[in-house]
Design goal:
The protein contains no helices and seven strands. The protein is an all-beta fold and 83 residues long.
C-alpha cells in the first residue's frame, strides 16, 4: 500500500509463521530488475518498503522470497506506479 503509488514509498505487508530471510526483487514489465533488497524478519506481522524513486510510471512486480528453517516460498505482488 498504497497501490498504485503516486510519489510515495510502497509498503509490502506480510505475516511470517517462522523467522526468515526475506528477499525482494522488483521487476518492470520487461522483466528487468529495477530494485533488490533483503532483510531478516521475525515470526510476526512484518513490512518492507520500496521507494520507486525515479522509475517510470507503469506496472511492476515485487517478487518476495521467504527463506526459513522449513524451506522457502515465493509471493508476487503487482505494484502500479503513477506520475
Amino acid at each position: 500500500f498504497p497501490n498504485p503509488a503516486r510519489r510515495a514509498k510502497v509498503t509490502l505487508a506480510f505475516t511470517l509463521t517462522e523467522a526468515a530471510q526475506v528477499e525482494c526483487r522488483v521487476l518492470d514489465a520487461s522483466g528487468h530488475e529495477v530494485a533488490s533488497f533483503s532483510e531478516r524478519h521475525d515470526r510476526a506481522e512484518n513490512i518492507m518498503t520500496w521507494d520507486p524513486g525515479a522509475v517510470p510510471a507503469g506496472l511492476y512486480l515485487a517478487r518476495l522470497k521467504f527463506s526459513g528453517a522449513r524451506g522457502s516460498q515465493t509471493a508476487i505482488v503487482p505494484v502500479g506506479v503513477l506520475r
